[in-house]
Structure formats: structure tokens, C-alpha cells
């Protein structure tokens, strides 16, 4: 899925920590969403492993199925 910067409408690029706008140099954190209900997932980190849990009834979600979206609020 492609996302555009809310400030300049240029395409965002995916980085290790989130999404970046190469045009206006803004950074946006990324949010993990459940692929079934599209609600934010709880990120569980333990012993170097990262797991995702849906609190809305879908349970543990595989890392391969997680959808990431930019967090335009946490600019």
C-alpha cells in the first residue's frame, strides 16, 4: 500500500522506524493494524521477539499478516 505525506502529498518511503517523506523531510511512526478488523494491535516484546496481539477478538496475529500504516498524528 502506498501512502502520501499529508503536508506535501509526495509518496512516503518505508524506513526501519516508520515512514519518511524525502521531499519535506518529515518522519511518521508506523502503527501495526490487525488484517482482519483493522484496529491497532498491541505490540508484545520479550526476549528479542516481537509479537502482535489483537485485543478486539482476533488474538495473536502473525508478523507476516500485520498491516502497517503511518501515524500521521505523532508527527
Beta strands, count: 7
The major sheet is characterized as: 4 strands, antiparallel
Which spans have pLDDT < 50 for at least 5 consecutive residues?
A: none
**Count of helical stretches:** 0
Query: Strand share of the residues?
Result: 35-45%
| Helix content, binned percent | under 10%
User: What is the rounded Rg?
Assistant: 14 Å
The backbone outline, from C-alpha atoms, is: elongated
Separation of the first and last Cα atoms: 20 Å
Q: Structural class, judged by helices and strands?
A: mainly beta
The ordered string of helix (H) and strand (E) elements is: EEEEEEE
Order of strands, widest sheet: 1-2-3-7
Mean of residue pLDDT? 90
Structure overview:
Helices cover 0% and strands 40% of the residues. With 75 residues, the chain is mostly beta strands. The strands form 2 sheets. A 4-stranded antiparallel β-sheet has the order 1-2-3-7, with no helix packed on it. A 3-stranded antiparallel β-sheet has the order 4-5-6, with no helix packed on it. It starts with 12 loop residues before the first strand and ends in a 5-residue tail after the last strand.
Element layout with pairings:
Elements: E1 13-14, E2 18-20, E3 27-33, E4 42-46, E5 49-54, E6 59-61, E7 67-70
